[in-house]
Structures are given as structure tokens and as C-alpha cells.
């Protein structure tokens, strides 16, 4: 009599699904191509329920629109595309490969100094901004557009408890800068991300490279009260400034800093961008929000 061989394929589907649930979403999808048994097990709710956040029900309750799904796997991949929550003031998404939680705070959720003063800032609806910015769309109902300020200060915060534990995160300012913007060419902006006793600080250059002065004009004076002081565009005593990247959606993003979220017990994550010392008036900046997502290696 032939004795059946032993191995994973001989295990009950529920047992295989239980084992796969201890891997990660990427490995689960990879296992699906090895055999029909693994494909069936890897698509079960047992597996994908493990990959969803433990507080997924409360997150879905905060969604602006219902998230339709027929299985936990479908729900997982639906959440890999961001959804609006909290009345459209924030968005939530899952990082596709790991399942780590990502949040974006809309401009309305940020503390923008002079943000409610029409002389300095204006608030544009998503539709009106899409028309003005040549089809550049935003997932939020409105964005903040800078008319003219000397004191630029933007702050945001998020509770570390809502983020994935044992994960290194980065915070990014999501913005756009008009070609006719002013006040950003020769000045660096200071940025910081702080959680608990740990703080990550650095200097940024919001001006995209295509809009910066030619290399032969890298040094320019800045006006400080009644005195002029030279400032290099990229480097100086503070070190090299971070520069923005163009996103797939057409917006610019620039890293404000990073932090490690251990068990989510360090309180609020505080983030800010500031430029208040240069003496230049600044205009042409549009803020969509601040995104907090896992840092890529």
C-alpha cells in the first residue's frame, strides 16, 4: 500500500491559512502561486484579518464614505488606496507590502500661523484649485494657499498610539510651489519631528531645483533687519538641505524628519516647518498636508 507523503500540501486548508497568517502580505501573495492549496488558503479571511490593523473597525467607522468589500483581502487592498476620515480632515491608508498604517493630515488639520487671516493665506476648494493648477488634484476638500507672509510656520501632530508599533516613520510635507512664487530661492526652512524625548531636525529647500538660480549665482545676501548676511542655497553651517521630490500625483513632497514608533506610548508626534529669520516675504506656496508613512530602507 502506498503511503501518502507528508508536507504542507497534506495539511488542512485552515491549518495552512493559520501558518500563512504569521507571514506578511507580500509573502502571502507569493505563496498563492505555489499550489492551488496555498492559493485557497492565502485568500482566506483568516489570513487577511491578521494583516489588517487591530483597530480597523473604528477606522472604518470614521470613513467619510463606506468602504465596500466582500472579503478581508479585498478590504486590505482597498485600503492601500487612501480613504478620507474624520470629516475629510485626514486620510488613512495601508502600506501595501507590510500593512503598516499611513496617515495624512490635511491643511485644515494643521496649525498654520496666520492661516485664517485672508490677507496672508486663502483657502481653495479642491475643484477651484484643480482648475487653477492645471488638473493637479487633491484628495481633501480644500487646500491652503499662501498669498504673502514673512513669518512662515506650519505645525502638525498625531498620536503615536494610532500608528503601527515597532515601525520607523517619516513625515513629509505635501505641497506645490508656483513658478511665480517668491521668497524661497535663497533661504532654507527649518524642520523638526519630535516624539517623546527624541527629536529629528534638519534644514530644507522647498524650492525645486528647476526653479532655483543658476549655479553661478548660488550666494545671495539676505536682509536681516538693517543688515545683510550671505546665505548659501544648499550648504552652510547647518549642513546640506533636503530637497523635494515629485510625487506620482503631481505634488511635491519633502521629508521633515523621521522617528521610531516603539509601542505607541510616547504621546504625540509633533512636526513643524518654519522660516522666520530671513526677512523675506514669501508667496505662491500651496499646502495639501503632512503625510506620516513608514520610512523605506
UniProtKB/TrEMBL annotation:
Signal peptide residues on this chain, from the entry's feature table: none
Short name of one Pfam family: PP2
InterPro entries: F-box-like_dom_sf, PP2-like
Listed PANTHER family: F-BOX DOMAIN-CONTAINING PROTEIN, F-BOX PROTEIN PP2-B12-RELATED
Name of the featured protein: F-box protein PP2-B10-like isoform X1
Organism: Iris pallida (Sweet iris)
Amino acid at each position: 500500500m502506498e503511503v501518502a507523503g507528508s508536507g504542507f500540501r497534506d495539511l488542512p486548508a485552515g491549518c495552512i491559512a493559520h501558518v500563512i497568517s504569521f507571514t506578511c502580505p507580500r509573502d502571502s501573495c507569493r505563496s498563492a502561486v505555489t499550489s492551488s492549496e496555498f492559493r485557497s488558503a492565502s485568500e482566506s479571511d483568516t489570513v487577511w484579518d491578521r494583516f489588517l490593523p487591530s483597530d480597523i473597525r473604528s477606522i472604518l467607522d470614521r470613513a467619510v464614505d463606506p468602504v465596500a468589500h466582500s472579503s478581508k483581502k479585498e478590504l486590505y487592498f482597498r485600503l492601500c488606496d487612501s480613504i478620507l476620515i474624520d470629516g475629510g480632515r485626514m486620510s488613512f491608508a495601508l502600506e501595501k507590502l507590510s500593512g503598516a498604517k499611513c496617515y495624512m493630515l490635511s491643511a485644515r488639520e494643521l496649525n498654520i500661523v496666520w492661516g485664517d487671516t485672508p490677507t496672508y493665506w486663502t483657502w481653495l476648494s479642491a475643484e477651484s484649485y484643480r482648475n487653477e493648477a492645471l488638473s493637479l488634484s487633491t484628495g481633501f476638500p480644500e487646500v491652503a494657499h499662501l498669498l504673502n507672509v514673512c513669518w512662515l510656520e506650519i505645525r502638525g501632530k498625531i498620536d503615536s498610539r494610532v500608528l503601527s508599533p515597532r515601525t520607523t516613520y517619516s513625515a513629509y510635507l505635501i505641497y506645490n510651489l508656483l513658478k511665480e512664487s517668491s521668497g524661497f530661492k535663497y533661504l532654507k526652512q527649518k524642520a523638526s519631528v519630535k516624539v517623546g524625548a527624541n527629536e529629528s531636525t534638519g534644514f530644507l529647500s522647498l524650492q525645486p531645483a528647476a526653479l532655483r538660480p543658476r549655479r553661478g549665482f548660488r550666494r545671495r545676501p539676505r536682509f536681516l533687519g538693517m543688515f545683510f548676511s550671505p546665505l548659501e542655497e544648499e550648504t552652510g553651517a547647518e549642513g546640506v538641505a533636503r530637497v523635494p521630490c515629485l510625487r506620482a500625483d503631481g505634488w511635491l513632497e519633502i521629508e521633515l524628519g523621521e522617528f521610531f514608533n516603539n509601542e505607541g506610548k510616547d504621546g504625540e508626534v509633533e512636526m513643524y516647518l518654519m522660516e522666520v529669520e530671513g526677512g523675506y516675504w514669501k508667496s505662491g506656496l500651496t499646502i495639501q498636508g503632512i503625510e506620516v508613512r513608514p520610512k523605506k530602507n
